[in-house]
Amino acid sequence: MPAPHLSVSTLSLRPRNKSMSQLKKIQQAVPNRSKRNLRKNQSPLLASVTLDTSNTMLVQEDIFNEPSRERLDFTGAKWVRFFTQKDDFLKSLIAIVNNSPTLRRIIEDKTNMVVGDGFIPMKGKSNTLLTTSMKGEVITDNSLNEIEQVISSVNLHSQNLQEVMASLAFDYDAFGNCFAEICRGRVGNQPFTYIYHVPVYNIGIRKAGADQIIKSVGIYDNWEEVPLTTDGSYYEKEGFKEVPIYPEFKDFEDGTQRSIIHVKQYAAGYFYFGLPEWIGAKMWAEIEYRIQRFNTSKFENGFMPSGLLQFFGSMTQTEAKALVDGIESKFSGMGNNHKLFVQVLRDEKLKANWIPTSKENEGEFLNLQNLAASAIVVANRWSKSLAGFATSGQLGTNQQIRQEMEYLQNTVIKPRQNLLLSKIINPFLQEIGVYNPAFKDVTFGISNTLPVSFMGDIKVEDNLSTNEKREILGYAPIEIEQPTPTNEPTNTTE
Questions:
Q1: pTM for the complete prediction?
Q2: 360 inside domain
Q3: Does residue 352 lie in a domain region?
C-alpha cells in the first residue's frame, strides 16, 4: 500500500527527555482540555487540515471541512463521512452534477472516453505505470473466449466489466472518489470472484489509527440513522458491513470474502476523501443551474397580457359580452396579432382606452451563463468545442477537433485509464487468475479510437467508384457500359 499523503511534517514533536510511559502519566494527570491541547501539540501526524474563516478569506459556506484527527478524538467518532453524517456536501455535488448541463456533458464525455472501445487482454506485466517496461503480448489464442465469457458478467447484477468501470470512472470525475468491492467465494467446488461498484454515498471510512493507515470502510445505504460513534455492529442485520481495504479480505457469514478498493483525487488538506478537479467551479455550476430555474420560474409565473382594453359608457351585460367576444375573435388567436383596432363612435363616453404593457425580451443573465459555462470547462481541463460550444470566429474543422481530442486523450483521459486499470481492473484480474489459468499473468489495456477520424479529409471522387458510392447511399449497383472495341488501326508515330 502506498504511504498516505500527509499535509504536515512527520518529525516527532514529543519532548526528547520524556519516554512514552512518562508522557502517558502526564496526560492522565492534566484536565481534559489540557489533554486535548497536549495531544494537539505533540501529535506527530494529523489526519487532515481544518480551515476556518480566521485563516482564510473564504466565507464559511465555501469551506468544505473534513473532520480533523483532534475533532474525531474529541467526539469519539469512529467513521468519517463525506463530510457530514447527513451528506449535505455530497448531496450538493450530486444535485449540481445532475442539473448543470455543461458539467454533466463533460463528465459523461470523460467517462465514455475513459472506458474507450473495449479492453485489450495482454499476457505479461501491465505497462500502465512504467513506460520503459516491455509491452505485453496481445492474447489471440483460445483463452480469449474464456476471458470474454468471464468479463461479460462480473457480478450478480449481470454487469460486464466495462459497465462497472464506467460507473467507477463517473464517480471519480463527479465526486473525486470511487469505490470498488471485490467479492470472492465458492459455489460447491467452483470458485468465483465478483466486482461491484459501490456508490460514494454508501461509504463511511473507518477512522485511522496512530499509524495513519486507513484499514477499512463501512458500507450502508442509510448512514443518517447510524451514530458515527458506534462500530455499526447493531445495524449488521439490516445490511451494514465493514470491509477491509484491499489486499486484505474479511470473511462474512454468507461464506464470501470481501475487500474494497478506494481511488481518490488528491486534494491538499484532505486525508480520508478526495475532491473532484472541477470543485473550483462549484459555484459557477450552481449558477448555471440557478439561471435555468430562474427562467423556468419566470416562464411559468411571469406571463402578462399584451395590454388592457377599457370601454367607458353604459352597456347592458348582453351588449358588453357581445363586444368582448367580438374583439377576442378578431384580435386573439393565431394570425390575429398586430391588427389595426379602429373605433367609430357617436358618443365620446364609449371610446376605448388602450394601455399597452411593456415586456423585456432580452435573455436573462446571458453573459453570466456564458461565464459559468467557460469556468466549468476550464476547471475540468476540457475544450469548449468538445463541450458543445462554438468558438466565435472559427468554423472548426476535423483537424482542429482531432488535435483537441488528442491533447485531452494524452493529458486527461490516459492518466485516468492507467489509474483505474492499475488500481482496480488488473488487481481484479489477478484475483481471478489464482484459480483460472486463462487469467494467469493477464492484464488489460484499453482500446482508444478518436470519434473524429481522417474520413472527412478524404476526397470521395478520387477514391470511390460509382457503384461504391451508390452502395454507401443504399442504392443497388448499376452496370457500367464498357467502351466498344473497334477494328480501326491506332495511329502510331513513326
A1: 0.75
A2: no
A3: no
